[in-house]
């Protein structure tokens, strides 16, 4: 009899924990952007690898990252300024190919293009 009471109490605790985890996971404000990540990459390219590497490295250097996917705690205004700095540098360079380079934003609201540079 005592074993049944212990098992019942244990089962009840597991149910309460499962319900609290479910409610916590489903709760929250969908209008609030949390866990924002950014991704760098080409959406169009027609040229050589050396030019692509130059474009990629110019953006990464201006933003201050080494990976294609990153978070940016300094804020969107500073990220946009860094992207504009990279674009200005690239606009002063002569390319033989045509390129479009995107900075994409991933959040709980979905995926969007945050910044786009193109020499087309």
Describe what you observe in this structure.
- This protein is of the alpha+beta class and 120 residues long.
- The protein has three helices and four strands; from the N terminus they run H-E-H-E-H-E-E.
- A four-stranded antiparallel sheet has the order 2-1-3-4, covered by helices on one side.
- Helix 2 packs antiparallel against helix 3 (76-91).
- The longest helix has 25 residues, at 2-26.
- It is elongated.
- The N and C termini lie far apart (79 Å).
Shape: elongated
Q: How is the main sheet built?
A: 4 strands, antiparallel
- Class from secondary-structure proportions: alpha+beta
Q: Determine the fraction of residues in helical runs and give it as a percent range.
A: 40-55%
Q: Please provide the count of β strands.
A: 4
Estimate what percentage of residues fall within beta strands: 25-35%
Sequence-ordered SSE layout with sheet pairings:
Layout lengths: L1 H25 L10 E10 L2 H15 L5 E2 L5 H16 L6 E10 L2 E9 L2
Antiparallel strand pairs: 1-2, 1-3, 3-4
Helix pairs in contact: 2-3
Key terms for this structure?
four-stranded antiparallel beta sheet; alpha+beta; 120 residues; 47% helix; 3 helices
Concise summary:
This protein is α+β, with helices and mostly antiparallel strands and 120 residues long. It has helices at residues 2-26, 49-63, 76-91, and strands at residues 37-46, 69-70, 98-107, 110-118. A four-stranded antiparallel sheet has the order 2-1-3-4, covered by helices on one side.
């Amino acid at each position: 009899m005592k074993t049944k009471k212990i098992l019942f109490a244990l089962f009840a605790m597991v149910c309460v924990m499962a319900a609290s985890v479910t409610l916590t996971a489903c709760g929250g404000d969908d209008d609030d952007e949390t866990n924002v990540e950014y991704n760098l990459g080409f959406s169009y390219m027609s040229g050589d690898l050396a030019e692509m590497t130059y474009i990629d490295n110019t953006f990464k250097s201006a933003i201050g990252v080494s990976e294609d996917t990153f978070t940016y705690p300094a804020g969107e205004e500073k990220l946009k300024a860094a992207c504009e700095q990279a674009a200005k540098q690239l606009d002063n360079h002569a390319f033989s190919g045509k390129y479009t380079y995107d900075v994409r934003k991933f959040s709980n609201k979905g995926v969007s293009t945050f910044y786009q540079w193109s020499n087309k």
